[in-house]
Design goal:
By secondary structure, the protein is mostly helical. The protein has six helices and two strands; from the N terminus they run ααααββαα. The protein folds into two domains: about 50 residues, no CATH class; about 40 residues, no CATH class. Helix 1 packs across helix 2. The protein is elongated. About 20% of the residues are buried. The model has no long low-confidence stretch (mean pLDDT about 90).
Length: about 110
Amino acid sequence: MSATPEWMAELQRAAAADGQAAVAKRIGYSTTVVCQVLKGTYKGDLHRVQRAVEGALMNATVDCPVIGDLPLQRCIEHQRGPRRFTNPMRVQLAHTCPTCPNRRSS
């Protein structure tokens, strides 16, 4: 039997401590997704959930070509969010994010 991946162990710990609904909100997924991931029945993109857990619960960072060192969760939020052209940094993010090596797979 293989060992539980570190991100999954962190998800389990957080869900036990704070509840699945609170953890789901922190990682940007529904409670149903968290429940299915924990039960091993999730049929979606598990790698995306892993990245969300690593960013929100494990403080992972990425090297953003626009901002520099950036918490992974903020990177994911920029990718999920609408394109905004309200300031120069958001304009640069809107142009850079679609081809960034940190971009999650579509």
